Amino acid sequence: MATDHRKVSEQLAQEILLEDPNFLREIVERVLQETLEAEMTEHLGAAPYERAEGRTGHRNGYKPRALRTRVGTLNLLVPQDREGTFSTRLFSRYQRNEKALCLALMEMYVEGVSTRKVKNVTEELCGTSFSKSLVSSLAGSLDSELAAWRDRRLEAESYPYVFVDARYEKVRVHHKVVNRGVLVASGVRGDGFREVLGVGVADTESEATYQELFRSLKRRGLSGVQLVVSDDHEGLKSAIARHFQGASHQRCQVHYARNLLGMVGHARRKELGANLRAIFATSDRKQALTSAASVADKWRGKGNEKVACHLEEHIEECLSCLAFPESHRRRIRTTNGLERLNQEIKRRTRVVRIFPNERSCLRLVSALAVEQSEEWITGRRYLDMRELEGHCPEEERGAEGVIAHGTMS
Questions:
Q1: Which has the closest alpha carbon to 349: 143, 201, 130, 129?
Q2: Neighbouring C-beta atoms of residue 296, cutoff 10 Å
Q3: pLDDT tens for residues 281-326?
Q4: What angle do CA 208, 237, 361 make, to 5 degrees?
Q5: How far apart are CA 135 and CA 168, in angstroms?
Q6: What is the pLDDT of residue 348?
Q7: How far apart are CA 146 and CA 396, in angstroms?
Q8: Are the C-beta atoms of 139 and 359 separated by less than 8 Å?
């Protein structure tokens, strides 16, 4: 219930931000000030005026700092300590994303391809006193930082679960507006924490582009993959089969349900959706297949041969998660774990609408991915991976769902 309330609050906040940025300025300012105070408390090992044995220093007033954001300029007070050892992580993380967004707007502005709305937003956030050379200089340092992150070594011993998803953004290429695929891969590490493994911007979503992504991940240290979760893109599945032989492929149940429900009229979707949920709720693979066969016969009897055939031919692709610990299945059956990052990407790119070039698109997506990955790694453990130790999915799933020799059994 708390999670639902939080999601509703975040959604409302995003809507308010888009409609009335000034409304949120004081709220954001207060939250960031509280974050600074919490960082200082953690650094010193004691709250203000607290007598603690583990205290490592003492507060020494504040230093004013203005932070320019999408909701306006925030006037913050950065805590200082007597020894001068405190350094906040807040500004570098926050401004990395803001800088990427502002650079995209500035590039459009100086190229003269922005709409009136983009011009107004750019002038509000960035002013007008900048040139192509300044934009290039600002972009250079940020691009170097983000490129280093994209090429970093993946340090975890294993990444048993890997999730792959894609979305499309509009980009200007040679004076034409084209769609570019934004590829994102995340993983659950052997210690149970999540991490954004890699991002990329490609001409198209194809087997070749996914192979390039997976080749990069493996070169950087990705190993121990047991399950790859994605949609049904043929090129993606072929790339998974080539690079993760012996791993299982889980077709995202949400994507599958969306495809199947599109085969029936609106009046019959509720019934078919309930049938699908019953299949996916089954904890045993054999029972799930039996249930799916029954549902297929039912819809064939209703005269919908297309739905029946689709269930018989493809439902098994959605059941690979049943070979893994039951407590993990809810989180490995779909690509929903990437939803928050994709929503944030969409929220930011909606301001830009059309990126001035591919570099600009990759810069903003990378900055958002860095922020999300840092939040995951330093946040709460996503899964208890001890349940996977000693668990042998091969014995439970037999040959079904295993990817080997470039094909799915």
A1: 201
A2: 21
A3: 999 999 999 999 999 999 999 899 999 999 999 999 999 999 999 9
A4: 50
A5: 25
A6: 77
A7: 42
A8: yes
Long-range contact set of residues 292-299: C-beta below 8 Å, sequence gap at least 24: 292/316, 299/272, 299/275
Structure tokens, 147 = 């490129």
Which residue type sits at 4? Answer: D
Q: Quote the pLDDT of residue 282.
A: 93
> Quick one: tokens of 144?
């170097």
Of the candidates 238, 305, 299, 310, which has an alpha carbon nearest to the alpha carbon of residue 274? 299
* Closest by Cα among 178, 176, 179 to 168: 179
* Cα gap 83→81, rounded to integer Å: 6
CA distance 281 to 314: 17
The one-character DSSP state at 321 is G
Beta bridge pairs of residue 81: 59
CA quadruple 13, 15, 20, 25: dihedral, nearest 10: 20
* Structure tokens that stand for 251 in this block: 């077709």
How far from each other are the two terminal CA atoms of the chain, in whole angstroms?
40
Question: What is the pTM (predicted TM-score) of this model?
Answer: 0.70
Q: Are strands 176-188 and 248-251 parallel, antiparallel or unpaired?
A: unpaired
| pLDDT value for 40 | 86
Residue whose token pair is 């911007």 = 201
Dist. CA 171–CA 360, nearest whole Å: 9
Average pLDDT rounded to a whole number, residues 151-178: 93
Q: Give, in order, the Cα–Cα distances in Å from 348 to each of 72, 99, 104, 248, 338.
A: 16, 12, 10, 34, 16
* Separation between Cα atoms, residue 188 and residue 197, nearest integer Å: 10
- Dist. CA 30–CA 18, nearest whole Å: 19
| Residue 114 amino acid letter | S
Contact 201, 362 (CB under 8 A): yes
Helix (H) or strand (E) holding 403: strand 403-404
